[in-house]
Each structure stands twice: as structure tokens, then as C-alpha cells.
């Protein structure tokens, strides 16, 4: 038989470059070729026979098995593997065909004579034997990898292998990544760590799970014998990635994110029952809170707009003043204008003319005394150029108002444009934005902020960019925001609604400004459990991700006078609108940007009130935060809402007001500041002195859907002599766009009540707009 094909020829063409980490099989050319001579004859080049390998000693030695084929031949097996791009083919038991690029699980070369079964489709060929593989190669090489072991070296810093963990019944870890053929221990750990998960499990060779160490304690009966974790990793067959219902379990030694649990958390308090579920909540310079309601969701007798007098919260009959809107404000954008009257502007809305709505309210009245002004609107005189449902708005450094995006109505056509108010003269002046068109319908209520360069940041869906404030051309496309550990495309704006703020700016305003965005959800309605920050104008901006202790879609974030942010409201599952939210998040958090990254969140108090879609959180002049909303969500089987219309209004009393200290106070006479000017206050402190005093300016905002329009916190320079202090106003309109602010002083941790001051005047002369007698024009 040997004479039919020279053994020398075969050996020459088959360079026995067989790499065995544990065992170099000795190839006896004579025997090897002798057993397979019939098979070798018709093999298509460059394929050639390698050896008869032992299968199954430590698991299958090939990673891919094709369906059994009673008509199997060596040629058909090679053709199948070759067509899928594999470089090795193996035939076993006459009818089985396997493919791979390496042999795994410690394959060793067996006796040539053990490959003794005829191929099902050609009795003159040999197709392995029982647990024996006739292995063919297209490269001349066979790399045989060692028996895989748990990876316990070359792990990312701080990570260690913990054992083979049972995963039966409830999944031990909540987040599963669906990688197929590239799963490795290190990649899985890196991905989980990037999203703040300190526990990792790998299962079935290719599944990567992320979670917490507590999950391994709560959801698993415990460790299993090491031998139960026997599946090589699909992307690294020298290491083990669990088994059937078994996780190769790794954990981080320590915390990736530290969530503080202070003894003094402050807490929720009931404030007053409500008349409306506010869609928009705005604290006016009259110290009263203006609520706008989604038409038709409240009492049938509702006018859709009410003002709450905070001095009368114990007197329900007198606390609420009825206001009137002429069109449907669902879902509009709001701002406080920099005019003398601090008018509240509301634009857009629901359906037909209402989507073009431009509404103005001049707050008046004093504590305990009703004002007489009402919302003013006249479609024929004043309206947007394009109808907008879910737009955003911003006062630009030049004092005009920018209105961005929206749709023509619910699930309507996108309105992928922006426009300026007051409407510039001439023909249509709205501008088309391709990025709004492309990301509809996931970009509604985009996040808008003025940057210290004067350029405009816009965050929408999972994208962000910087716009020129004159041409609105894109100056910089920022990296996409990371989403959830499983879905990079999770979103941050309506309907996958998160919430965004500018982090505080401190004199001399040289640090790069940062934007913080918390929560959101993915397309599977899973809320996000992280916040991301970026310094958009730093040299190579990237997003930093910090994990929150719980998931949150539709969160609200209120700027507090001490530079921290209160995070409240929202759901752990769902998206905004459509009644889809479930599992309310009742836990308040505090985000403190003065702490190191990953150590900024404290866990505060919990509420009993579910606040989902159309809930808000608004800083009050006394340092508390007003908590309002929400609209009905999620139907019970009998059709009643699981989370009904919520009229009750709460406040959150932050820790700085619940530690028994007295609030400081100050007096000021000039409340209309130009840039860089100085202003005197007389302070009364109770615990510290002016060396531990701080001064803050919290911009007056209007908030809807977690989008706090106009939000900004500034810690200006100040100097004191005795109890007389001089505050230096921020230097320019890019650092501090024209507008009203609540001025606070802080005695150590404790804030005063605020006084409203205006900074930067009214360069856009909004106070003289619109030029119609049926509108109040408070002057510039
Ligand atoms: C690491 O794994 C190898 C292979 O399983 C094992 O022999 C060794 O003892 C392990 N080392 C540690 C520190 O666990
Ligand atoms: C694994 O492959 C998938 C595509 O199948 C890819 O999305 C993923 O990023 C890869 N994972 C790693 C860690 O490279
Ligand atoms: C509207 O009607 C409800 C229920 O009848 C009542 O509780 C509420 O006070 C009324 N609101 C006003 C503003 O009259
Ligand atoms: C304010 O006006 C409302 C009617 O809109 C009235 O119910 C309320 O009693 C008034 N409050 C005071 C303090 O006069
Ligand atoms: C502000 O800039 C916009 C965009 O260039 C422009 O339309 C508007 O007229 C400017 N406003 C003022 C007051 O100059």
C-alpha cells in the first residue's frame, strides 16, 4: 500500500508544525500515512492529512461541529469547513464533521490505527473512529491548545477568580452580553468594569454576565466543583468560561463606585395637595411656583395653569391661584427670560396651532397676595415658524432665544430644525439640522447648554455636538455617550429620557466646564443605572461613566445652592410617555461634583409616592426642593392605572437643612448686575465666619421632562470685611448667559434663602418684545 504514495512525499508536504503546550505527539510518518492513504489521494490542495487525534479526553477538541452526515466523505467535510473559512477539518465516527482553526481542550495525537472507521459516504476513505478524529489542515500546521484552566493571571487590576458558581433558576447576574465567538475573560471583565459592575460571570463558553457581588450571594446556591466549569472561552480556548448552568466567577477586590450612606439624609415631606399634575414647573421671581398642566389629564374644571403661593401651603383654599392658557401646552418648552420682569416663556405644544404656541407670563403678586397677571398668547400675532412638540429652548449669550427640534405631533414627522426668537426679519429663518433628522424620534427635548467659548452644546439620543452660535454649523462632534453595559445605543433624551445639568463653575472660571447626564433607558425599556460626564471643550473630550446605585429613566435633577445636585423621581423600567413605566425609583440621591469621580453619590431618603412621567424637581428659594407629578402609568389587568395621577406635592429637605443648624441670611440692594461689576451684601452667619462662607448663583430655570432649561450654577468671587462682603459678578455672557439667578450664601454647609438677581441685562431686548398691545412688555 505504501507504494501507492511515497511516505516521503507526504511528510515533505506536511510540515509537522504541531504545537502542543503539554504534549508533542510523535508523528510516525509511516503509520500515519499508511492508515489514511486512501483518504489522501483526492484531497483538494492545499488541504492535507495531519494525524489521527484523540477527541473528548478533556472535552471536544474542535469548537464547531456540523450536523451528522450519513453520506460524509473527507472531501465533503473539508469543503464544508473550507467554505466557512476554517483551516482545520476533522472527521469522526464515520459520519461526524468538525471544523476549527485550532484544536482545543488538550488534543493529543493518537494511534494511527485507531482512526479505523470508513466514511459514511465513501467506504474507501477513513473518517476517524470512536473518539478519534482524522484531522486535515489547509495550512500545513495544527495548533493544539492545552487543556483550558480558569484564568487567574493577567486579569485587569484588582480582579480575582472566585470559583465555579452555580447559576440555576434565577439568573445570578442581571446583565448578559450576547457575544458569540469572541468571549474572553478579560474582555468580559473590562466591559463590566467600564459600566461599574464589580462581579462578572462567564457561562457556556460564550456568555458574559455583569452584576454585583451581592448578586452572587443572593441568587446562587454557591460554588460548584471546579470540574463543572469546563467550557473553553469562545475567544480564548486556553481558559475556561463556565459550563452548563455554571459561571466562572470573578470579582473586583473593593468598590468600583462608592455610594455614601450619610447618617443625615434629610428627607421627603408632604407639602400640599395639588390641583394639577404639572408638566412644567417654574419658580418665579415672585417666589411662587407656576405649574402648567397637560390638557385633559387633571380635573375637568382645570384651567391647565396654576400658581402656588408657598407661604400659604397650610391653607389649600388660598394657596392656588388659577391661571389660564389659551392653547395646549403638552409638550412645550419653557424658560425664564432675562427681561426686567423675568417673564416665563413657553413655546410649542400639542396639535395644530398649539404646536406653534408662544406664551408669556409675567410673575407678580407677593407672598400671601395674589398677583393679577395671566398667561398671554395670541397665535395671530406671535407664533413659532414651525410647529414643535417636545422642543428645547435656551437663552443664548447674545440674549436671543434658541428653540431646537421637536416633532409635528405625537409620533408625527420630525421637525429637524432650529429657530430664533424673537423671529428674525425676512423669510423663513429656521435652519435644517441633519443630526436631528437622523436621530428622530429619540432626540426630543435635547439638552442645550452655552459653553464658556460661547458655543452651544447639544446632547440628544446618545450623541452630542458643539454648535457655532451664529451659523449653527457643527464645530465638534463629540464621542457618543456610553449607554448600558449591554446596549451602547441606549439613549438619554425623550423618550429614553434622562436628565442633564452643567456642573458648577467657580471663579476664576478657568476649569473646563463639565456636563453631567444621569439615567435614560435602552430600547428594551431597561432604565440606565449610570451618569456620564464630559468636558466638551477640553482637548480630547471623552465621557466618564459613574454607576448609580439603582436604575432610573425619567429622573429629575435639581441644582442645590451648595453645588450638589439632588436626583429624584423616575422609574427603573420603561420609557417616557405611553404609560410604559414601571418599578418606580423612590430613592433620592445626591451628586456632589466636589468629590472624586466614582465617589460622588450619596444615598438619601425614600418617598412613598411614585413619580414617573411628568414629574419635576425644582429648587425653592428656601433651599428645599419641590417634588411634583406624575401622570398615570401602567395599567392593571382591570384597566385601572397601577400608578394613578399624582396630585400630591412634596418637598425634599436636603441634609443641609436637617442638621439642626440655622440658615444664614443677607441683605442686598442692587439686584441688576452687569458683567464683572461688584455688589455689596451684609451677611448674618450663625456657625462659621466669612472664611468658611460660600456664595452661589443658581440660574432661574423652568423644568419639564427632567430637562432643566437654563440651568447653571456659579460660585463667584467675593471678599469680605467684617460682615460686609463684595461679590464680583461673572465676567461675560459666555460664562453666564444673560438671566435671572437665585443668589445664596452658605454658612459652612447651610444655605440662606435666596434673592433673585439679574446678570447681564437683556441684550436681546426681549423686554420690549413682542410689539403688540395685548402683551405685557416689562422692559429690558
Ligand atoms: C491558577 O490556576 C492554575 C491552573 O488552574 C492553578 O494551577 C493555580 O494554582 C492557580 N493559582 C492561583 C493563585 O489560584
Ligand atoms: C465580539 O463580537 C461582537 C460582534 O459579534 C462585537 O460587537 C463585540 O464588540 C466583540 N467583543 C469584543 C470584546 O471585541
Ligand atoms: C375641581 O374639581 C375637583 C373635584 O371636583 C375639586 O377637588 C377641585 O378643587 C376643583 N378645582 C377647582 C380649581 O375648582
Ligand atoms: C388667589 O386666587 C384664587 C383664585 O384663582 C383664590 O382661590 C385664592 O383664594 C386667592 N388667594 C389669595 C391669597 O387671595
Ligand atoms: C443672536 O444670534 C442669532 C443667530 O445668529 C441671531 O439670529 C440673533 O439676531 C442674534 N440676536 C441679537 C440680539 O443679536
TrEMBL record:
Family annotation (SMART domains): WSC
SUPFAM superfamilies registered for this protein in UniProt: E set domains, Galactose oxidase, central domain
UniProt signal peptide: 1-21
Keyword Signal tagged: yes
Keywords: Signal
Superkingdom in the source lineage: Eukaryota
Pfam short name (any one): WSC
Tagged with keyword Aminoacyl-tRNA synthetase: no
WSC domain: residues covered: 46-139, 158-253
Gene3D superfamilies per record: Galactose oxidase/kelch, beta-propeller (2.130.10.80), Immunoglobulins (2.60.40.10)
InterPro entries hit by this protein: Gal_Oxase/kelch_b-propeller, Gal_Oxidase_central_sf, Glyoxal_oxidase_N, GO-like_E_set, Ig-like_fold, Ig_E-set, WSC_carb-bd
Name the record gives this protein: WSC domain-containing protein
Lineage: Eukaryota, Fungi, Dikarya, Basidiomycota, Agaricomycotina
Amino acid at each position: 500500500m505504501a507504494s501507492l504514495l511515497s511516505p516521503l512525499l507526504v511528510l515533505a508536504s506536511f510540515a509537522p508544525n504541531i504545537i502542543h503546550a503539554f504534549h508533542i505527539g510523535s508523528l510516525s510518518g509511516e503509520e500515519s500515512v499508511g492508515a489514511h492513504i486512501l483518504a489522501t489521494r483526492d484531497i483538494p490542495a492545499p488541504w492535507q492529512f495531519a494525524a489521527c487525534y484523540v477527541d473528548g479526553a478533556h472535552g471536544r477538541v474542535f469548537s464547531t461541529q456540523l450536523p451528522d452526515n450519513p453520506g460524509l466523505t473527507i472531501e465533503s467535510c473539508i469543503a464544508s469547513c473550507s467554505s466557512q473559512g476554517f483551516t482545520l477539518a476533522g472527521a469522526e465516527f464515520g459520519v461526524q464533521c468538525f471544523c476549527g482553526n485550532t484544536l482545543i481542550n488538550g488534543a493529543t495525537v493518537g494511534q494511527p490505527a485507531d482512526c479505523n472507521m470508513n466514511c459514511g459516504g465513501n467506504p474507501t476513505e477513513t473518517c476517524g473512529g470512536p473518539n478519534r478524529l482524522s484531522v486535515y489542515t489547509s495550512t500545513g500546521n495544527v495548533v493544539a491548545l492545552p487543556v483550558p484552566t480558569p484564568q487567574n493571571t493577567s486579569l485587569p487590576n484588582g480582579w480575582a477568580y472566585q470559583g465555579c458558581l452555580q447559576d440555576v433558576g434565577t439568573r445570578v447576574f442581571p446583565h448578559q452580553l450576547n457575544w458569540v465567538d469572541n468571549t474572553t475573560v478579560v474582555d468580559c471583565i473590562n466591559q463590566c468594569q467600564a459600566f461599574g459592575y464589580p462581579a462578572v460571570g462567564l457561562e457556556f463558553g460564550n456568555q458574559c454576565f455583569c452584576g454585583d457581588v451581592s448578586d452572587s450571594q443572593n441568587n446562587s446556591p454557591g460554588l460548584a466543583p471546579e470540574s463543572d466549569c469546563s467550557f473553553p472561552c469562545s475567544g480564548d480556548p486556553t481558559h475556561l468560561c463556565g459550563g452548563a448552568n455554571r459561571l466562572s466567577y470573578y470579582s473586583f477586590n473593593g468598590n468600583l463606585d462608592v455610594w455614601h450612606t450619610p447618617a443625615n439624609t434629610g428627607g421627603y415631606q408632604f407639602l400640599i395637595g395639588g390641583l394639577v399634575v404639572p408638566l412644567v414647573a417654574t419658580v418665579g421671581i415672585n417666589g411662587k411656583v407656576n405649574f402648567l398642566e397637560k390638557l385633559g389629564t387633571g380635573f375637568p374644571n382645570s384651567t391647565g395653569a396654576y400658581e402656588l403661593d408657598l407661604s400659604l401651603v397650610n391653607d389649600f383654599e388660598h394657596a392656588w391661584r388659577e391661571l389660564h392658557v389659551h392653547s395646549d401646552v403638552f409638550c412645550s418648552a419653557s424658560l425664564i427670560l432675562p427681561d426686567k420682569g423675568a417673564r416665563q416663556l413657553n413655546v410649542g405644544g400639542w396639535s395644530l396651532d398649539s404646536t406653534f404656541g408662544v406664551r408669556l407670563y409675567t410673575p407678580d403678586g407677593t407672598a400671601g397676595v395674589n398677583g393679577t397677571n395671566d398667561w398671554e398668547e395670541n397665535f395671530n400675532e406671535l407664533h413659532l415658524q414651525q410647529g414643535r412638540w417636545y422642543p428645547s429652548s435656551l437663552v443664548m449669550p447674545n440674549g436671543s432665544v434658541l428653540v431646537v427640534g421637536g416633532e409635528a405631533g405625537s409620533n408625527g414627522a420630525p421637525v429637524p430644525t432650529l429657530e430664533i426668537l424673537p423671529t428674525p426679519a425676512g423669510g423663513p429663518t429656521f435652519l435644517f439640522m441633519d443630526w436631528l433628522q437622523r436621530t428622530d424620534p429619540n432626540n426630543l427635548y435635547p439638552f442645550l447648554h452655552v459653553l464658556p467659548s460661547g458655543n452651544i452644546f447639544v446632547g440628544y439620543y446618545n450623541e452630542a455636538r458643539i454648535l457655532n452660535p451664529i451659523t449653527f454649523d457643527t464645530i465638534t462632534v463629540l464621542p457618543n455617550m456610553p449607554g448600558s453595559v449591554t446596549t451602547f445605543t441606549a439613549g438619554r433624551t425623550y423618550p429614553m429620557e434622562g436628565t442633564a445639568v452643567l456642573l458648577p463653575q467657580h471663579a476664576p472660571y478657568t476649569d473646563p466646564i463639565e456636563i453631567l447626564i444621569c439615567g435614560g433607558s435602552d430600547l428594551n425599556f431597561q432604565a440606565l443605572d449610570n451618569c456620564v460626564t464630559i468636558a466638551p471643550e477640553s482637548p480630547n473630550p471623552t465621557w466618564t461613566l459613574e454607576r448609580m446605585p439603582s436604575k432610573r429613566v425619567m429622573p429629575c435633577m435639581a441644582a442645590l445652592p451648595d453645588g450638589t445636585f439632588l436626583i429624584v423621581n423616575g422609574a427603573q423600567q420603561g420609557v417616557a410617555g405611553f404609560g410604559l413605566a414601571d418599578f418606580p425609583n423612590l430613592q433620592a440621591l445626591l451628586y456632589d461634583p466636589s468629590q472624586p469621580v466614582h465617589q460622588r453619590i450619596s444615598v438619601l431618603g425614600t418617598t412613598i409616592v411614585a413619580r414617573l412621567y411628568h414629574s419635576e424637581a425644582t429648587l425653592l428659594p428656601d433651599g428645599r426642593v419641590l417634588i411634583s407629578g406624575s401622570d398615570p402609568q401602567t395599567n392593571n389587568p382591570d384597566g385601572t392605572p397601577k400608578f394613578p395621577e399624582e396630585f400630591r406635592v412634596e418637598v425634599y429637605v436636603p441634609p443641609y437643612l436637617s442638621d439642626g443648624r440655622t440658615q444664614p441670611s443677607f441683605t442686598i440692594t442692587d439686584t441688576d448686575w452687569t458683567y464683572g461689576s461688584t455688589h455689596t451684601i451684609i451677611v448674618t452667619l450663625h456657625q462659621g465666619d466669612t472664611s468658611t462662607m460660600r456664595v452661589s448663583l443658581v440660574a432661574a430655570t423652568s423644568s419639564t421632562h427632567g430637562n432643566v432649561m437654563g440651568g447653571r450654577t456659579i460660585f463667584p468671587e467675593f471678599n469680605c470685611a467684617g460682615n460686609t462682603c463684595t461679590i464680583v459678578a461673572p465676567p461675560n455672557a459666555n460664562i453666564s448667559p444673560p438671566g435671572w439667578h437665585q443668589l445664596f450664601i452658605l454658612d459652612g454647609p447651610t444655605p440662606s434663602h435666596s434673592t433673585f438677581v439679574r446678570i447681564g441685562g437683556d441684550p436681546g431686548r426681549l423686554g420690549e418684545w413682542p410689539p403688540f398691545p395685548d402683551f405685557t412688555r416689562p422692559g429690558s
